[in-house]
Amino acid sequence: MHFSKLFIVFFVIAALACFTLLELSKNTVWGWLLALAVFAAFFILRGTVLADKSIWLRLAAWALFVFALIGVGKLSAPPARQTPAVDAKSPAVTPVRTVESGELTGVFTEDGEVEVYAGIPYAKPPVGELRWKAPEKAEAWSGVRACDTFAPMSMQPRSNVLFDSVSHIVVYKDYKITTKDNQLQAMSEDSLYLNVWKPAGDVSNCPVLVYIHGGSLTTGSAYYRDHTGEAYAREGVVFVSIAYRLGVFGYLAHDELAAEDANGSTGNYGLLDQIMALEWVRDNIASFGGDPEKVTIAGESAGASCVNALCVSPLAKGLFRYAIAESSGITGKEPYHTFRRYSSALETGSAIMEECGANSIDELRSVPAEKLVSTRYPNSAMTVDGYAITEQPYLTYEKGENNEQALLSGYNMHEADVFVATTKVTRENYLEKLRPVFGDHAEEAAALFPPAERDPEYTYFLDAGGEAKGSFNELYSAAWFDYSHYNWGRLLAAEGRPVYEYFFNKNNGGIGSIHSGEIPYAYGNLPADSRLYGADDYALSDIMTGYWLNFIRTGDPNGEGLPRWEKFNDDPTMVLELNTEVRMVKDKYLGVYDLIDIYMDEESNKR
């Protein structure tokens, strides 16, 4: 065989590029084998049969080679599969437990200390005629249902696998080369299921935590490694995670839907799902050793907004006692995200109807879920529908008609950094970029935080940068996320109910204190074998889980061996800093909150 040096170099580069793409795209192992066969076949043919052929024939062979590799990539794309409840071969099966719909079993963790029940239906599948209707109780089943696999996640735009891999290299820094992740999480419109982690054995009267995942009300899953419930179950808490309808399936609003609903409700189907899940917990959690009178709800990002919505919904009254909210809320007079005016919700619904070429809701119900999920109109917000949410949430607090008896909430240092990464902010355009958040008070905000560059620890290669990007990130974080907790806290404190507010700013080898960075710390899910975290991270996680668990049990996070967490009620200017050192510190964004108060009053008066 004869090969030119140029061919060898190009061939090696092509092979490296191909197999890198196969790895980052999570193609299956047989795809690697097929690609290897294609490379080997072409190498042999190029050196024998094609060696003395015309340039055109060789070019045609190259084209066929490229098309073959593209075909391999498509044919070996990662399949969508459901995830086992525990990462162990042939796990032991739990005793049979009985819920309203029938009998079921789960599986034990490998050490036998925790029972996991995955994919328990709490409502009928919201498909066909039940699309965009209030959820109905799950139907009964016969026999014993094996709840050993997490259900598919709710319909949502599927993220690009290659982009996701790159983000885990660049942002999360936790990328691993393994054959265990060559699959996608299954997805379905039939997704109203929940998961339960409980201490092994016959336990009773355990406190219960119900976790609501985030994802801008458009993405996310009830199962994710950072918020699994195994660690809490080991500490005597029954942990429940729930799925709910997302995006166009969960938050579409339309006059025709309101007219056909007995309560005149539309636009909050995802919230109604959460309420039904809480009703399921009330009626069934005792079968898993949980006490229905000791339920705490928790959520992060959009999940925290959902927690806030449940706190003001008359339909959720009596279904829980305490609330934990991380990095979002909807108590502002004009919330920045996850909440919209009813008129805006109806306009979006009409636009989607037109986009799909539907003349009625019945016709829209016949549109395949795979087409609907790709709508260009976002449905990432709840609304005042007069039923699940009866008024702007802050008004419910002013009346003292909210549901939570105590609140633990807070925010992270670099909340907005990733969300605004592609925005370039310079000294020249700084005020212009601030106006959408502060209106005519942009200059005052800029005076509080003069132009400053990004923190080097939180600089990503895709970030557009600019000499004012650091201060811009801080102000956007304070407005979009931090303010909601301050405002929520003072509304609840005015009722005399206890509030505890934190500020998470721990750096680490992973994502640090960007949005969602606190989750694995708070729920005891820092990976034990990761080089991204050090002893101080695991120590902080122990402190945070101690606070969260104490709060779930008593409504007060304080306890033996933990630094004192002072109530927001006693001094609303102070927050608990969660870092290598845990201590009470002055909230650095108080001046920003004052500007937002003024701005929101002005915007509300325009309505």
Key phrases:
607 residues; alpha/beta; Rossmann fold; eleven-stranded mixed sheet; three-stranded mixed sheet; 19 helices
Write the layout of secondary structure elements.
Blueprint: H1 5-24, H2 29-47, H3 55-75, E1 80-81, E2 97-99, E3 102-105, E4 107-108, E5 114-121, E6 144-146, E7 153-154, H4 161-170, E8 184-185, E9 187-188, E10 193-199, E11 206-212, H5 230-233, E12 238-242, H6 247-251, H7 255-260, H8 269-284, E13 290-300, H9 302-312, E14 322-326, H10 342-355, H11 361-365, H12 369-372, H13 393-398, E15 406-412, H14 430-438, H15 442-448, H16 469-493, E16 499-504, H17 519-522, H18 535-554, E17 574-578, E18 583-586, H19 590-606
Parallel strand pairs: 1-8, 3-6, 7-9, 11-12, 11-13, 13-14, 14-15, 15-16, 16-17
Antiparallel strand pairs: 2-3, 4-5, 5-10, 10-12, 17-18
Helix pairs in contact: 1-2, 2-3, 14-15, 14-16
Q: How many H/I helices?
A: 19
For the terminal residues, how far apart are their CA atoms?
79 Å
The major pleated sheet works out as:
11 strands, mixed
Task: Provide the spatial order of strands within the biggest beta sheet.
Answer: 4-5-10-12-11-13-14-15-16-17-18
Q: What global shape is seen? A: globular
Question: Which stretches of 5+ consecutive residues score pLDDT under 50?
Answer: none
What is the assigned CATH homologous superfamily of the largest domain? Alpha/Beta hydrolase fold, catalytic domain
Average pLDDT, rounded to a whole number, is 95
Radius of gyration from the alpha-carbon trace, in angstroms: 26 Å
Percent of residues in helical segments? 25-40%
CATH architect. name of the largest domain = 3-Layer(aba) Sandwich
Question: DSSP strand (E) fraction?
Answer: 5-15%
Name of the level-1 CATH class of the largest domain = Alpha Beta
In the CATH hierarchy, the third-tier topology of the largest domain is known as Rossmann fold
Quickly count the domains: 3
**Strand count:** 18
